[in-house]
UniProtKB/TrEMBL annotation:
Keywords: Chloroplast, Hydrolase, Lipid degradation, Lipid metabolism, Plastid, Transit peptide. It holds the Pfam family Lipase_3. It is found in: Plastid, Chloroplast. This is Fungal lipase-type domain-containing protein. GO terms for biological process: lipid catabolic process. It comes from Daucus carota subsp. sativus.
């Protein structure tokens, strides 16, 4: 029986002093008795009575033990991977005066540079989510020739350019993984490791040279026989197939990605730089559209068991336009070097051969001149938008042709000499001119590349993407929060990297793993997150 007792005020202090020293015994009614009793509803007059009452209460009132609080481990707001932690430890232990004088090291090797190098040498970097383009997608696709988006460079446009550049890298990887093709049968479908998994490849594209080398060349160098083959995989067609990405971009995008020169016969075609008239024109037209002979040959020539690049791309785009009829579509053609030249021919062919052609835009990297003023006018009249990303130190962008200065060419054509120049276009074999809007970059703007980097570096696609990622405006320094990985650039262009950084990388004994060199992606697709 439990007695209801009241504790007199004068005994409160006594009980509070003594109760903590009493250990309670376990009982059948309370097998999980706490070490200390916490009730305040008993009355005591002496120690014996207190113990007795506590014992009775212990039997009649089972008390649950209080759980021991478990606190979660403190989370680091900026967690780092094991690889980054290892790199950080090496960097902190690095004795910089070992390579530079102390004063110079203090001036050039600031914590900001160390942090940037540490981040750029990592396998990947954290990027903010891609913004929704929505109703503005036509502006980013060149509807008004990218007015107001280039200088300073709009961040959304920067991300789009880098994304299309990575599509070109996938075309390079697809070719180099398996460069050989057979002249005896049609090629099988090739796997393309796309950088953005919201797209799927629908068609491999092949270009065929009209020239050939003697068969004895294959006998002398059988291991290099693929370099003498006339037909080679030059790119692919892909279409966005992810609903979330389609909603983000504001349309379903069809991408045509084309790599640069890779075989001997492609180089041979590049050298055939006389302007020739494009087929299907009126011979009496005052301004004839002409393009380089070798480029047109690669575009229009078919192989023994495969159609020409022109036929393949038109047929596939027609199929996709019909398949997604009723949806908002866009066509983006992107290429590097020779691929940039082919991209202009592809855009021209699609705009004239595909009924109800969706908006066509070209993003070209390091592209040469392709045709004359008549060809440029033809593309403009067909509403083809062209954005040329150009490194001012890249000589490939200045050939072929008579006019080295695009500014001089433009001034002459805007002057009273325009009619004279039109006559020259129709009669001179090297009256080339560029097409579209230009975004000019400069190797000297990069804090990592030597200002006198060689021709190969200035034309390298990864170097282009590095410069795009760091470009803010023509009158601004390199973007301080640029995040594109330097792994591939270091592996391929180490001799063109500034000594400040190559020495640091050597001190780290940095050896990029093969999987890091495949394609440093800066744009994780929504489907992969």
């Amino acid at each position: 029986m439990l007695l209801s007792l009241t504790l007199p005020p004068q005994n409160l202090g006594f009980f509070e002093t003594r109760r903590a020293s009493f250990k309670l015994r376990k009982s059948p009614l309370n097998p999980c008795a706490p070490r200390f009793f916490n009730s305040a509803s008993v009355s005591v007059s002496n120690t014996t009575l207190t113990r007795k009452h506590l014992s009775n209460l212990d039997k009649l009132l089972p008390v649950k033990s209080e759980p021991v609080p478990v606190f979660p481990p403190r989370s680091d707001p900026n967690p780092i991977s094991n690889e980054e932690a290892k790199t950080r430890g090496i960097l902190e232990a690095l004795n910089l005066p070992r390579f530079w004088k102390e004063s110079k090291a203090a001036e050039e090797v600031s914590p900001r540079h160390l942090n940037r190098l540490r981040r750029l040498l990592s396998k990947s970097a954290e990027y903010s989510p891609r913004n929704i383009l929505g109703s503005k997608w036509r502006q980013y696709h060149g509807s008004d020739n990218w007015a107001g988006l280039l200088d300073p460079l709009d961040e959304n446009l920067r991300r789009e350019m880098v994304r299309y550049g990575e599509f070109i890298q996938a075309a390079y990887h697809c070719f180099h993984n398996d460069p050989a093709t057979s002249a005896d049968h049609a090629p099988a479908d090739r796997h393309v490791a796309l950088p953005d998994r919201s797209y799927k490849v629908t068609k491999n594209l092949y270009a065929t040279a009209s020239v050939g080398l003697p068969k004895w060349v294959d006998t002398v160098a059988p291991d290099l026989s693929w370099m003498t083959q006339r037909s080679s995989c030059i790119g692919y067609v892909a279409v966005c197939d992810d609903r979330r990405e389609i909603e983000r971009m504001g349309r379903r995008d069809i991408v045509i990605a084309l790599r640069g020169t890779a075989t001997c016969l492609e180089w041979a075609e590049n050298m055939r730089d006389l302007l020739v008239q494009m087929p299907g024109q009126d011979d009496k037209a005052p301004s004839q559209a002409k393009v380089e002979c070798g480029f047109l040959s690669l575009f229009k020539t078919s192989g023994p068991h495969m159609p020409s690049l022109s036929e393949s791309v038109v047929k596939e785009v027609q199929r996709l336009v019909e398949l997604y009829k009723g949806e908002t579509l866009s066509i983006t053609v992107t290429g590097h070097s020779l691929g940039a030249a082919m991209a202009l021919l592809v855009a021209d062919e699609l705009s004239t051969s595909v009924p109800d052609t969706p908006p066509v835009a070209v993003f070209s990297f390091g592209g040469p001149r392709v045709g004359n003023r008549g060809f440029a006018t033809r593309l403009e009249s067909q509403n083809v938008k062209v954005l040329r990303i150009v490194n001012s130190q890249d000589v490939i962008t200045k050939v072929p042709g008579m006019f080295v200065s695009e500014g001089l060419d433009k001034k002459l054509r805007e002057s009273s000499a325009c009619s004279v120049l039109n006559i020259l276009d129709n009669n001179m074999p090297w009256a080339y001119t560029h097409v579209g809007t230009e975004l000019k970059l400069d190797t000297k703007m990069s804090p990592f590349l030597k200002p006198d980097a060689d021709v190969a570096c200035c034309h390298d696609l990864e170097a282009y993407l590095h410069l795009v990622d760091g470009f803010m405006a023509s009158n601004c320094p390199f973007r301080p929060d640029s995040k594109r990985s330097l792994v591939k650039l270091l592996d391929e262009q180490k001799s063109n990297m500034k000594r400040l950084y190559t020495n640091k990388v050597n001190a780290l004994s940095f050896k990029p793993r093969k999987e890091l060199l495949r394609m440093p992606s800066v744009l994780p697709s929504p489907s992969s997150s």
